[in-house]
Every structure is written in structure tokens, then in C-alpha cells.
Design brief:
about 375 residues; alpha/beta; Quinone Oxidoreductase, Chain A, domain 1; Rossmann fold; six-stranded parallel sheet; about 30% helix; globular
């Protein structure tokens, strides 16, 4: 099997031949069909989100099952699956309180690049361990996943894998930030900072919830058309225009009820804070570099009753929510065909990194495997 291996932060990932051990109990071996490149993949690559390396990253994948390990009962060879980068145990403190996205059992394995038994299934040509990132390792032609982290795609859903893979991160996180975290409904005012894959999905679900206005904010004017296509009522190029006065005018001087920061940029977080009204909420999805700080004037937090809410995976419960989201996606209403703007080969990953650093990527670029 081939894989892009992260061995040094910020350096090109070499394509290597790796050995893949067979699936163990309650695991499945898969052949990758497609994997999206998320901004958090860039953050891992650049070392802004520290991980144990060497490792194979990639967490937004659609695959087909090739083999099943002992005890697997819900999947069989030939099934298409969506990989989940959080695999809740169901019994820890967070899982029992309805927050499976924060599973305390799975998180240490996730961070270490291991499966749920505490080991990887990948070794290099020297027999040295290589981490299996996010329970998926989507930047590889083949992988092993936990059965509970591989959500079956029903046979009646005929969407191509480059669309289906978006369910694993950008669709679920965008949906969850609007529906689960904001609880947005008709007439709520909402702003989205960052019109990448997750931001566009947040805009789309805000539009489907009939929010108004829906203000898209991005530093690149080239994102305007897609943002409006996905349902934004207004677009602000904040490389040219301060969004705060514009948003205040659009909301009668009050500000937004919800501001979703989908970039992980401290400056955007400050803008979002000033853009919300009294009692409003900033929802932070984007992950800033681990050593960064955000200069927020918290003097106003109690006086204006403003809140900041971080969210991981949009509070998604993968085994419960992804099957429903598949059915919604299958209707075409999510516009995932418009979200995927370029298909690439595994060998072109460094071009994605260059383009994302240069802010040239619109929508989602997706690896399409043979």
C-alpha cells in the first residue's frame, strides 16, 4: 500500500510503501475511495496541531471494506463506509452526558495515532511504527478502522465518493455548529468567518434553517460566489472592508445573534466578538496554532452577557447523525457537488498545501483514488 507519511512538520510528505497489518477484533480493512483535504490537515502538517510523528494523516474519507476482523457484525466486504475521526466508547464521562465527540476514552488514541487497542497497523520498510492518524489515515490507499468508526453507506445512495467523504468532517461540523450548538432557527442572524469547506456547510445549513441575515466574511474576494451559492445573503471581503460597521448596519445597530469562526484565526475571533449583539454567541470551530492567543476585551463579557463557545465536530454523534445526513445529502439540497472544486492524486498533496497557504483553494480539494 502507498501512503503520504508526515515525518517532518512543514516539509513535503514523501509517498512511501507501507505494510498494513490485518484487522483485529471489531476492525475492518478498507481501500480508500476519496479523502478531502481539510484546513486542520494543513495545521497538523505545519505543526500547529501537534501530533505524534511519523504518521499518516487524512480524516475526511470514504472507503470500501475489503476484510473484516473477528467480531465484526455490521459490515461486510464490499460495503462503502464513511470514516469517523472520533469513535465514542459510549461509557466515559462525556459519552454518558451526551457529548460523544469529546469521548475521553478515544481521545488519547486519536492524539497518538493509534487504534482503540493502543497500537497502529502501519509500519515502514524498516519495520518501524507509523501512526494511523484520526482512526482513518485517509492519505493512504488502504487502512484499518474500528467498526464503530466506519459508517455504512446504504446501497440506494449513489453519490460519488468525493461527495460522500465530506460527511466525515466538513458537512457534519458545519451542520452541527448551526443546528446542535447554535440551535439556529428562522430569522436568527448569523455570520460565518471563513468560507472554506466547513464554513460553506455552516452557511448552507443556516440557509436551510431560514436564518437571516447570513453574513459570510472572508479575506479572499474569490470566495464570494460560492458563499452566495450556498445561501449567504451578504458577503464581506474583510481584506478591504471592516465587517463590523457593515454587520451593525445590517442588523439595525444590534449585531449578530451568532458568529461562527471557522478559520482558527485570532483576528477573526476578535472581529466575531465585536460583531455579536448583547447576549450573542461566538462559536469557534477553527483551531488556531497551539501557541497563539486571542486578545478579547472581556470587560464586555458580563456587561453584554456575550459568550464564547468552542465546539469539536459540531457536537456530532457519528453513528446517530451521519446516516441521517447521508439521506439529506442524497437529495442534492446540500450542494456537495458544488463544494468539491478539484480532484487530485495522492502524489499532489504538496500542491494542496501550497495552494491553501496561498489562500487559493475554493471549496474542497479531494484526493480521488483509483
Amino acid at each position: 500500500m502507498k501512503a503520504a507519511v508526515l515525518r517532518k512538520y512543514g516539509a513535503p510528505m514523501p509517498i512511501e510503501e507501507l505494510e498494513l497489518a490485518p484487522p483485529r477484533e471489531h476492525e475492518v480493512q478498507v481501500k480508500m475511495l476519496a479523502c478531502g483535504f481539510c484546513h486542520s490537515d494543513l495545521s497538523v502538517w505545519q505543526g500547529h496541531i501537534p501530533q505524534d510523528i511519523p504518521m499518516v494523516a487524512g480524516h475526511e474519507a470514504c472507503a470500501v471494506v475489503e476484510k473484516v476482523g473477528p467480531g465484526v457484525s455490521k459490515l461486510k466486504p464490499g460495503d462503502r463506509v464513511i470514516g469517523c475521526w472520533m469513535v465514542p466508547c459510549g461509557h466515559c464521562y462525556q459519552c454518558r452526558r451526551g457529548h460523544p465527540n469529546l469521548c475521553e476514552t478515544a481521545m488519547p488514541f486519536f492524539q497518538a495515532g493509534n487504534l482503540l487497542d493502543g497500537t497502529s497497523r502501519l509500519t515502514d520498510k524498516h519495520g518501524k511504527r507509523v501512526g494511523l492518524g484520526s482512526f482513518i489515515a485517509g492519505f493512504a490507499t488502504h487502512s484499518v478502522m474500528p467498526e464503530t468508526g466506519a459508517i455504512r453507506v446504504p446501497d440506494h445512495i449513489k453519490l460519488p465518493p468525493e461527495q460522500l467523504c465530506q460527511l466525515g468532517c466538513s458537512v457534519a461540523t458545519g451542520w452541527g455548529s448551526v443546528v446542535n450548538v447554535a440551535g439556529a432557527r428562522e430569522g436568527n442572524s448569523i455570520g460565518v468567518w471563513g468560507c472554506g469547506g466547513i464554513g460553506l456547510n455552516a452557511i448552507r445549513f443556516a440557509a436551510l434553517r431560514h436564518c437571516h441575515p447570513i453574513v459570510a466574511v472572508d479575506i479572499e474576494a474569490s470566495k464570494r460566489d460560492l458563499a452566495l451559492e450556498f445561501g449567504a445573503t451578504h458577503f464581506i471581503d474583510n481584506s478591504q472592508t471592516d465587517p463590523i460597521p457593515v454587520i451593525k448596519e445590517l442588523t439595525g445597530g444590534a449585531g449578530l445573534e451568532f458568529a461562527i469562526e471557522a478559520i482558527g484565526d485570532p483576528g477573526a475571533q476578535v472581529q466575531a466578538w465585536w460583531a455579536i449583539r448583547s447576549g450573542g454567541t461566538v462559536i469557534t470551530i477553527g483551531i488556531p496554532p497551539i501557541d497563539s492567543t486571542t486578545n478579547l476585551p472581556l470587560f464586555y463579557a458580563p456587561l453584554h452577557a456575550k459568550s464564547i463557545r468552542g465546539t469539536l465536530y459540531g457536537e456530532t454523534h457519528p453513528t446517530e447523525d451521519l446516516p441521517h445526513l447521508m439521506e439529506v445529502m442524497n437529495t442534492g439540497v446540500l450542494k456537495t457537488d458544488k463544494l468539491v472544486t478539484r480532484l487530485i492524486r495522492l502524489e499532489e498533496l504538496d500542491e494542496v498545501r501550497r495552494a491553501m497557504l496561498a489562500r487559493e483553494v475554493k471549496g474542497r480539494w479531494v484526493i480521488k483514488y483509483d
